[in-house]
Please model this.
Amino acid sequence: MPTHFDLLCFSHLRWDWVYQRPQHLLSRAARERRVFFFEEPREGDSPGLEINHPEPGLTVAVPYLPSGLTHEESERLQRVLLADLLAQQEIHSYVSWYYTPMAMGLTPRLTPLATIYDCMDELSGFQGAPPALRGREAELLRRADLVFTGGHSLWEAKRTQHPRVYAFPSSVDVAHFRRARRARVDAADQAAIPHPRLGYCGVIDERMDLALLASLARARHDWQLVLVGPIAKIDLANLPQADNIHYLGPKSYAALPRYLAGWDVALLPFAHNDATRFISPTKTPEYLAAGCPVVSTGIRDVVRPYGERGLVRIADTAEAFEAAVDAALSEDRASRLATVDPFLAQTSWDDTWMEMSGLISAVVQGAQAPAAVSPAAVVLRDGSTAA
Model:
């Protein structure tokens, strides 16, 4: 049975956008084997494939297609470009890894050693989801050898749809974000912003509770809201504007600890809608590792385990959220970190990838992957259980 194989990933997220789950996992995979990251197409004058090597062992392939194509024409050209990639890079023995079920239209003739579906979000709940997405996901679930989910609520939604579904919630590179606790120089573009600062980093899109942010800014003119990250799928005219709301734009993953170091409270101000129903925000443990007190709306995978463990304050109304921030501002830092750090010591992206890699290797080598834990009593990484 093969032990050396490449990893061929199909993603709806771009490698050079926000550094999140795919980058954390696949950069670690690239330390062990060649990883090819095939993105969704961009517009170009003629069909072609742009190849980049952002990290050792990692190849990012970006298809370029002319505008005006039908969906069928787009998929046909992408199949040709994918075949060119496999031939040029001599990709013969490989595992297929999917973030987007829509890529099933590109891969009907592939013969991977194994098929992995890393389901990090319920994409069908997002604004503008393709009508064919649910059908493509059903097809992917039929073909997949293993299914990973980005959180426990998503595991609960998928566990009856496949015999091998494993929950791998958002993890953290503690050492990277702990730099925020030692930072002495503020980020240049937030240095002039007064304190107290309430910060958020991540994509600003349909998942954000914009009304909550606006209410918070109106209620407390002395609080400064600092929002770091790209804006997507939101009309800029609908973003709340005030003297104490600061949109600083996207920042590199390397720069994030310096921004977090200058915040007095970190926020998870998510709305309750279809797009947030199953999310497991990567930034939750990142905020905690940076040493920030955290206030969140009642997202299920934040409430459990973080809210129940007293690591994050949970509030959903504007008044309750304001009160929670007030309480967070007066927390005793040493006491909080004494609770946070033992919890964070139980999880890391290195450990998550090691567990995933072991499951994949077992399937590739023809062994039966261990059965997923009974849905009746899943043991979470914090030692509690979930029904």
